[in-house]
């Protein structure tokens, strides 16, 4: 059987229960509800600070109608952030490496923004297909290009998240395999490879946070155009 | 106090099987036990005034162990695989 490096991305199951279910619900355990105390413990304070930061950052460019999306965008952001970061722990499974899950998150939300725009301000939404100041001969070509770019947005959102996380995990696995293989024969090269692995892990932590942020930011941008 | 009302940590080893026989193993009983365990864990390690990284780290370590156990059938053949 030619099992490859992509084995780490298959959803493992024990007794018929796939690990992805636990990986999806575990982040909820890490976020205790603040309760009704006035001064909460450190963890709840940190969590509240983070949620406030995210909500302010996402909702500042939106008008009042867009603030209805605050809950879903903030919770999506926290969800993706936690899932991506938890995937960097040893032996864990990252659900966002599955294209199916990312497309399932991106497609309905993008479609919701598009339908909101088409329903409430159809001419303005269609007007986005033609940037201002285009020379007249270019108009038909540009309309087609803009329509394609509009329709490809959910695919881009999903694939961007999948590809970034998958590539990162794959690189970590490759370089760590190389480090282990070299440690017996050439220890000095193994130490250099270990240094690369260390830097790569720091990069992966950054990528995990940035990709979650980019996903939600793009959705809020699509919302801004349409609401 | 009486055996059935003592929490698990205060039951002596010899009385363990008697204690288990007084447990409520219905779905509501098990759910209640899980909720009580979770809230006592939170109260002891997380909802403290000067909590540190210890509370969350134990949860994360438990998660790593759980994931390891879930994938054990895959890992045990790691050394003998030709392609990793």
From TrEMBL, chain A:
The protein's location, in the record's own words, is: Mitochondrion inner membrane
The annotated topology with respect to the bilayer is:
Multi-pass membrane protein
Q: Which PROSITE patterns match?
A: ATPASE_A (PS00449)
Q: Which residues form a coiled coil?
A: none
Q: Name one GO cellular component term.
A: proton-transporting ATP synthase complex
Can you tell which superkingdom this protein's organism belongs to?
Eukaryota
Q: Which Gene3D superfamilies match?
A: ATP synthase, F0 complex, subunit A
CDD domains (alphabetical) = ATP-synt_Fo_a_6
The alphabetical list of record keywords is: ATP synthesis, CF(0), Hydrogen ion transport, Ion transport, Membrane, Mitochondrion, Mitochondrion inner membrane, Transmembrane, Transmembrane helix, Transport
Keyword Ion transport assigned? yes
Q: Which GO terms describe its molecular function?
A: proton-transporting ATP synthase activity, rotational mechanism
- Catalyzed reactions per annotation: H(+)(in) = H(+)(out)
Name any one Pfam family assigned in the record.
Answer: ATP-synt_A
In terms of InterPro entries, this protein maps to:
ATP_synth_F0_asu, ATP_synth_F0_asu_AS, ATP_synth_F0_asu_bact/mt, F0_ATP_A_sf
Q: Which positions, given as ranges, span the membrane? A: 12-31, 69-89, 101-118, 171-199
**Similarity comment text for this entry:** Belongs to the ATPase A chain family.
What is said about its interaction partners and assembly?
A: Component of the ATP synthase complex composed at least of ATP5F1A/subunit alpha, ATP5F1B/subunit beta, ATP5MC1/subunit c (homooctomer), MT-ATP6/subunit a, MT-ATP8/subunit 8, ATP5ME/subunit e, ATP5MF/subunit f, ATP5MG/subunit g, ATP5MK/subunit k, ATP5MJ/subunit j, ATP5F1C/subunit gamma, ATP5F1D/subunit delta, ATP5F1E/subunit epsilon, ATP5PF/subunit F6, ATP5PB/subunit b, ATP5PD/subunit d, ATP5PO/subunit OSCP.
Name of the protein this chain belongs to: ATP synthase subunit a
The organism's taxonomic lineage, starting at the top: Eukaryota, Metazoa, Chordata, Craniata, Vertebrata
Automatic annotation (TrEMBL), chain B:
Location in the cell: Mitochondrion membrane
The Gene Ontology terms for molecular function here are:
proton-transporting ATP synthase activity, rotational mechanism
UniProt entry keywords in alphabetical sequence: ATP synthesis, CF(0), Hydrogen ion transport, Ion transport, Membrane, Mitochondrion, Transmembrane, Transmembrane helix, Transport
Q: What is its main location?
A: mitochondrion
Sorted alphabetically, the Gene Ontology BP terms of this entry are: proton motive force-driven mitochondrial ATP synthesis
Q: List where the protein spans the membrane.
A: 54-72
A GO cellular component annotation in the UniProt record = mitochondrial membrane
* InterPro entries according to UniProt: F1F0-ATPsyn_F_prd (IPR019344)
**PANTHER family, per database record:** ATP SYNTHASE F CHAIN, MITOCHONDRIAL-RELATED, ATP SYNTHASE SUBUNIT F, MITOCHONDRIAL
Family according to the record: Belongs to the ATPase F chain family.
Q: What is the recorded name of this protein?
A: ATPK synthase
